[in-house]
Backbone:
């Protein structure tokens, strides 16, 4: 092959490769912001009549609200989706439903699942389950409710902890042709973490905005971030 022919083939190869890359570029319309569980029971100033929610995350979870509102109002995403923890009063994750056990204890359920016991929180239709009053939820937003089955907890917005019951989230994102998700909200070490892991499993490109989250505890928050980095989540620290 002459040098000129070789040069021609090289140029063609470069052109084809760059056009493939162009095809893979994600447009704004294909990007979703997932706002996880910004509900009164996880916040500290949502109620008018008390100082904090029943399962307040960290010292001052409300600090993330203006930062999340900035993302919601930005021009970066095609859609914004919200999740809500939405438990029946007899939910398996409530310590009050397990006599002889205390809040924050871990027990093993009949099916072998490990379950941390929490204070009663986000009971369906309660004030604690409402979004924090300062969260900027656009009218008509898609809200996915999780943890509705009394037998299973559901940290991920995609499915319950036993992976037996999916929520409507995956089908909704697919119906909107979403390819990339950015995750914010509460709590970093539980529902945000599990949602990110499931988003990776479901082949989305995933970003986590750390400044827009808060952890229940620093060590579990740090472990969650380290694991998400390993899984290929784009962890944005600032
Ligand atoms: Zn819950």
Residues:
């Amino acid at each position: 092959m002459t040098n000129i022919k070789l040069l021609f083939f090289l140029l063609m190869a470069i052109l084809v490769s760059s056009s493939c890359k162009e095809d893979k570029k994600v447009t704004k319309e294909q990007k979703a912001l997932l706002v996880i569980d910004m509900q009164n029971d996880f916040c500290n100033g949502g109620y008018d009549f008390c100082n904090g929610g029943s399962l307040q995350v960290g010292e001052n979870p409300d600090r993330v609200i203006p930062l999340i509102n900035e993302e919601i109002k930005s021009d970066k995403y095609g859609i914004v989706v919200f999740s809500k923890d939405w438990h029946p009063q007899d939910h398996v994750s409530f310590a009050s439903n397990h006599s002889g056990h205390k809040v924050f204890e871990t027990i093993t359920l009949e099916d072998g699942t490990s379950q941390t016991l929490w204070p009663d929180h986000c009971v369906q239709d309660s004030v604690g389950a409402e979004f924090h009053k300062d969260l900027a939820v656009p009218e008509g937003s898609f809200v996915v409710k999780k943890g509705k089955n009394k037998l299973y907890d559901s940290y991920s917005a995609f499915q319950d902890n036993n992976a037996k019951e999916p929520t409507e989230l995956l089908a909704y994102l697919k119906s909107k042709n979403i390819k990339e998700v950015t995750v914010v909200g509460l709590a970093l070490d539980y529902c945000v973490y599990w949602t990110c892991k499931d988003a990776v499993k479901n082949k989305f490109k995933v970003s986590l905005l750390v400044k827009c989250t808060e952890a229940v505890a620093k060590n579990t928050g740090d472990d969650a971030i380290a694991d998400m980095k390993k899984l290929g989540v784009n962890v944005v620290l600032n």
